[in-house]
Amino acid sequence: MSPQPRAAVGAPLSRVDGRLKVTGKAVYTAEHDVDGAVHAVIVDASIGLGRITAIDTGAAEAHPGVLRVISHRNAPKLPYRDNPGSNNPPGRRLRVFQDDRVLFHGQPVAVVIASTLEAAQHGASLVEVRYEAETPSTDLHGAESGAPTDYARRDAEAGLSNAAVRLDLTYELARNHHNPMEPHATIARWDGDKLTVWDKTQWVMGTHDELAAVFDLSADAVRVISPFVGGGFGSGLRCWPHTIVAALAARMTRRPVKLVLSRKQMYFGTGFRPSYEYRLRLGSDRRGRLNAAIHDIDGETSSYETFNEAVMSAGQMLYSMPNVRQAYRTVPLDVNTPIWMRGPGFASASFVIESAMDELAHELGVDPIELRRRNEPSEDQSTNEPFSTRRLSECYTVGVREFGWDRRNPRPRSTRDGDQLIGLGMAAGVYDPGRFPAQARARLDADGTAVVEAATSDMGPGTYTSQTQVAADALGLTMRTVTFRLGDSLYPPTSPHGGSATMASVGSAVVDACNQVRQQAIKLAVEDRESPLYGVNADDVVVRNGRLHVQGSPARGETYKSLLARNDRSHLEANGTYEGPGSERSAYFAYNATFAEVAVDANLGLVRVRRMLGVYDAGRIISPKLAESQAFGGIVGGIGTVLLEHTVTDHRDGRIVNASLADYLVPVNADVPEIRAIYLDGEDNAGNLLGVKGLGEVVQVGVAAAIGNAVFNATGRRIRQLPITAETLL
User: Which residue out of 210, 628, 645, 697 is catalytically annotated?
Assistant: First the structure.
């Protein structure tokens, strides 16, 4: 079959939804105008553990505009049937308003519904709740952990004892919150026994299935709509309690209900990157060849659900090492449940592993990149599978050249610019991109335009644009003649919009659907006696700019529009599927090498990032402009993790002390340095039709370690606690 011309994929195109966003015409969840909608405000628990002994709602119910107050006293018992397809962590779900127990500070204990937002807010302030309080356990340090998840190969203890060089290092990583620009929100409306929900979600079908399970509804009785998502970073990867509350309130009031979380409520109403205590013991010979590593990892989870993430994976496969042992223990605390956050698991583990590699390089007097090269594996030693592609060494080579790594003085605290101590650091990064089953539908209309639909999301990476590029090339159309629709559970089901899975999974389904439609048109043409393509071998026909023609003979052909009109066809349509990576096994990872230059004030201990470079092995790049935005966003997120972000909890009652953007620090423009991103040219065809590797996660992995290593090079101070602050450096 002749290859389709490729005009859109690989081109640095602007976002197809960009004008809508910059002109304010993109409609986010809370902006949907649902006729007759009233407002709901949640009343949050003011204790960290205990039970409700009384709720006085009289003053709230008497307030003008308040329609109803719902709590466990008057809420119906909900079925909460099992939901095997849920993305929720395994264990007991939080059943809102089903009993008097309080499991964490901020748990919903009541909701006030009113005709205006102001009335609902004031009504919520009038609800008086009395408690029998217990002392919550909210501190990871010293808390009792659950049974560990273990991994081992060969004898790590013996390997460590025989190592010529041994390091025993403990790192502490703070809890981080996602803080997307758009707060989480839900609008719920019942039409008889059918429920429609507008929701901020990264998984339309996950929210759909959870609502059906909670309210014991059939699949066709629930519709979830989410056309635009104003940032997520993982916070929208499950159906949170406020969505259930909105649907319950709408059913009990028989009115559409809008519920928007405040910024403060997002610190306990949705999840977070869990804090970790991570001990790593590392052994090597005098030349730096790694011999053994022992990882002891404690990470927080909630008392009512067990959350875990891929914090063990990088330690099993990033470097060649014969002896490895890992124990990952989740520590149940009286907090709300964590959730995946950009680069989940890998970003946390990489700070530890890549910082330790830098410490080992310093101990041995070896260049950090040379140390990594000496421990480059030939296969994934955790599975004995070959790598689908692994171009990490090439990432190092390009980074060394483009960043000017040869200017780095290996002696710490040796480079100054006035009162500023200057340091260079680097780190490797790896991520296991998701590849999940997905479906898509493509329709070519008689006017020569096409519509492609899939129930995926777009939280900012540019799904509308990248999927339009893929569809346009597969159909042989221009970008302006293709419309991609997403964010509706009525569209073909897709996997979560996270885990770097969307391009490989949804994109493969889109290609399949569009290829089928194009092939339908080609078959129609070569069998049509009136077509210029009659009798041509179908494999020799390609489509460009909506015109079918013989490969190498562009004069012989016709347009989609003329073909369909002559055959009296209103449209051609096909459903595409992607089943997953298939039976051929290979170790499928995306990689990066991240480089950082920092300046540290010698007197004040203040760290400023001067410049950063990321070099990526991420397969085929569908959209260079979108990819650059992904890299910049991931690097900025990593700057936040290493230098600024830290969720502070008052362990006396579980209250989050800094639950606002005034107190929880995130990077602003002044914190963002010169950033460059370079993508290695190539593709990875392991298990997807596009040759892509997921990109959104790997761009944050390794950033924190690169900056931390640069801080050590600048100051000679090794900080093993995140975030790195002036206090820790002085």
Answer: 697
